[in-house]
Amino acid sequence: MNYVPVTRTPPASYRWGVGASMVYGGNIPILDLGPGLLDTGSPTITIDSGSFSAYEAVTGGVLQPSACS
């Protein structure tokens, strides 16, 4: 387990937010460094919409609207 400081960057700073980076496949950057939210009651990690769009683009993922309700 690694310690990471809680972010001061809004809107993540309003909750348990951290500075996050994301790489897909070991070498494709998705998120250089941006705010991320942690939910201690579930396995959810929230990222901004631009990073999510980048993740969809590199993985070929497609959002299923029925799963988002």
Content of β-strand: 25-35%
Largest sheet: 3 strands, antiparallel
* Strand arrangement in the largest pleated sheet: 1-2-3
The helix/strand class is alpha+beta
Helix/strand order: EEEH
Helix fraction, binned, reads: 10-25%
Low-confidence stretches are none
Span between termini: 33 Å
> What Rg, in angstroms, do the CA atoms define?
13 Å
Instruction: Determine the number of helices (DSSP H or I, runs of at least 4 residues).
Output: 1
Please tell me what the overall shape is.
globular
Residue-averaged pLDDT: 78
The total beta strand count reads 3
Defining traits:
69 residues, 1 helix, alpha+beta, 16% helix
Helix-strand layout with pairing:
Elements: E1 17-24, E2 28-38, E3 45-46, H1 49-59
Structural notes for this entry:
The chain contains one helix and three strands. Helix content is 16%, strand content 30%. The chain is globular. Strands 1-2-3 form a three-stranded antiparallel β-sheet. A hairpin with a 6-residue loop joins strand 2 and strand 3 (45-46). It has one helix spanning 49-59; strands spanning 17-24, 28-38, 45-46. The protein is an alpha+beta fold.
Structure at a glance:
The protein is of the alpha+beta class and 69 residues long. The chain has one helix spanning 49-59; strands at residues 17-24, 28-38, 45-46.
